[in-house]
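Handout for the seminar on molecular recognition.
Each group receives one record of this type.
Step one: identify the two inputs.
Step two: read the structure output and locate the region that could contact fe (ii) ion.
Step three: write two sentences on what you found, then compare them with the reference statements printed after the record.
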Amino acid sequence: MTFNPLQEKGIPLEKQIRSWHDIVKRPFNKYEVDCYSRTRQILMNGIEVEAWNFKHNLSRTCSDPETRKIIALSRRIEDMQQTTVNWLTPACQTVLETTLGYEQVAVDLTAWLAQNEPDDYVRETFNFGLLEDFDHLYRYSQWAYMMDGIDPNEILQGMTDVVVSRPTQNHHNCNALRLRRHYDRMTAEPQTKVNIYTLVSGEQQTHNFYAEHGMMYPNDDLRRTYGEICDVEEEHVTMYESLIDPAETPYEKLLLHEFTEVCNYYNCYKDEEDDKLKQVWEEFLGFELGHLQIAVELFKENEGRDPEEVIGNKVVLPCHFESQKEYVADILENEIDKRLAPDDEMSYTTIDKLPDDWKSYNVQEKVGLEGAPTEETIRLIRESINRDIVSADMKLIHKQPDLIKRGLEIIAQAPNTVDYEDYKQMDKVDLMQF
Ligand SMILES: [Fe+2]
Ligand SMILES: [Fe+2]
Ligand SMILES: [Fe+2]
Ligand SMILES: [Fe+2]
């Protein structure tokens, strides 16, 4: 089924104020929730945070009193939605468990978006980021075992692999190099715009979650690991948001934000099997259709253009979650040595073609001076159980030494790097039975 959101009225804004008891619902059961219900919940929280934050920024730069009034009203609804969605998280779900959920979102969402992205360059950028979040999942999985004593599959439920990817110490780039070529707002497809708005919201919330929670653990190595990965998420926000055409007008951006919310809630509603969550997605889809109507009117009044030029006339699916193991393994094997090219085209290259004065080497040398926390992570787990925690097809697991050989830069390596020989040794140790 597909529909044209422009033809729906949705729930009017004045009917979107709810009671505190309705806003703060009973959380889900972390032992029973489907992993993809949890990823939807994590993503939609990020979407709402972005909606709320965008509307504050819009108000701060908008001089039209009517726009400011209506934005103030709908902004409060976004905030209430955010509370509802995020607070479905049960108090007993640990920060590390939630973290595994965040990286599962990043991996399986980015893989879905890449396969449904019409623009080749945008797809290439999604695939580039994909391998980095895939490595974060591997590093955090070690900590989930060391701190909480859990198998990562208690969260991932066997749907997402856990193996080494492009090593995190190589994700630290000159942030200016992270900037990508932006799409053209007049010619880009609505799918491309919604894909990027969705991913930016997810990555931004991942950054914020690490920034706000990494210090909640007393262990210094884990705190530093959160610090290191949080900084990569900043690079991810920088990278993905730079794909957006900066010439989009404020009203165009408002339209795109509401449309992105509509598409995501619609996709969640369509896929959800948990009755309680499905109800939330359905109700909030109605809210967002109401917001979209408002954005359409503001856009028409202020720009005199047809909203279809910006968002088309049908809903797109930006967040279908399903296991992406095959796709991710394929990108992993073919693109682990990919890097940001130091050229004016903002293109990609491979490690062997990097010049010695590549700007990211400078950053990597400085931040990894006393060792990379994400490398220390693997040293610590090896101390504990003689190898790393992994979960994948045995064929893929045995490829780890080779992957690290191809995926690790030689220049600017952290002094505590876990290298090819170390992975060879670990590969000889039987996998732990949990
Ligand atoms: Fe919203
Ligand atoms: Fe990540
Ligand atoms: Fe990320
Ligand atoms: Fe909204």
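Reference statements: The longest strand covers residues 338-340. Strands lie at 338-340, 348-350.
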